[in-house]
Please model this.
Amino acid sequence: MTLELGDPRTYRKAARSLFRRAGGKETEITVRESTGFLTRLAKNVVHQHGMRRECRVAIRVTERGRSSRVELAAPDVDTLAEAFGRACALVKAQEEEARERSLPLLGPQHYPLIRDFDPAVEAESPARGAKKLRKILLRLRARREEASGYYSARIRNVFVANSAGLEAFHRASACRFGLTVRKDGGIGYASAFRVGASGLDLEAVYKEARARMEASRPDVRLKPGYYTVILAPRAGAEFFGPLWEDMNLRKVRDGDSFFSGKVGRRLFSGAVTVRDDVYDPAQSGLPFDGEGVPRKKVLLIERGAVRNVVCDRKAACDFGIKATGHGAGGLAAATLPMNVVMEPGERPLDSLLEDFEEALVFPHLWYHQVVQASTLLATGFVKGKALVWRKGRFIGGVRHPRYVQSIPRALENAAAVTLERETIKDREYGASVLPFLCVREFRMV
Model:
């Protein structure tokens, strides 16, 4: 079975039919459709294939300042009409006091082109995925290594339209491969994301996971204390996630964000410059938000100084600024930077390691969570092993060490970032482009 999605012309036809039915009511429709598969392997055997197709439609109706939203799965013509009727009934049922000042619908917009779709992904299938894994599995068995992991391919369509003439459509593809290799107590993990399957180098991922596995032997005991830590791009995406969630204008102005009262101040290391930029060549995401607002490039942190945060249309109107294109709308997403890009440094990781007498390398995190919202103090484990660098070489690994560390303090103590970067794709509508980040005074417990 290959991957197929609906024709966007079908979405447009359904939307226009809905708008005719709406009469004078302001009406919006959002379609989220995706299809893909996930192939899992464990103990050197492909043991699971899962195909999944989803289609969700959200309809929002606004009349005289009151609005309602109805969402449904796998709709047809009849259920769309029924959902529209329910939305209209919900609007009428609202109390007069429930009215909120609603913004007028956006008219037609211009969206820059984002090239993150590879038509060849439509031909991908679980059988093709398993065939690609076969060469690596044979090598693993020959070397008496044991591996677990996944291979996935996915295509996603998003369509947003309204009765004021706005239409936005974007199709994207994503192929991912992740592998954990084990042998003689060593554990190594690596992963990769590409828009197309042809660009996904499974062999390179295997070599990286294997190198980390060998570097993690033997087991090393670690005393509680403060260490220099190097967050790999995967670990960095997981570690800094809660920080980006606080870069929301509404939360900042309401005093609910770590950044409340701090925008414009230098809070972090001068080695750190971050922007939200869906148009970066290494990125993947939508050129519009859930309300149809074109996405803008936003400079978040410049050489350690917090310059900007992101917002939706409502917050922009309330606070007298321009919207950045980060509204949730019918996408069931949050208002936060979705396409984080951290500027690279000038030196590769191998060169930076030479600067440290001792350091820990975190490839991947586990159970990362914030335990104190005001300071964004977080705790979690390193998944697998943290690699121990000492006196010019890797001497082994620490199994599942725990950390307790303030996320902002880690950026404040960033000593350097590497020249090489990786694209980490975990979010449905975004990704992170990150280097390796060297942090001093990182607390291990």
Observations:
- The first helix runs from residue 8 to 22.
- The first strand starts at residue 26 and ends at 42.
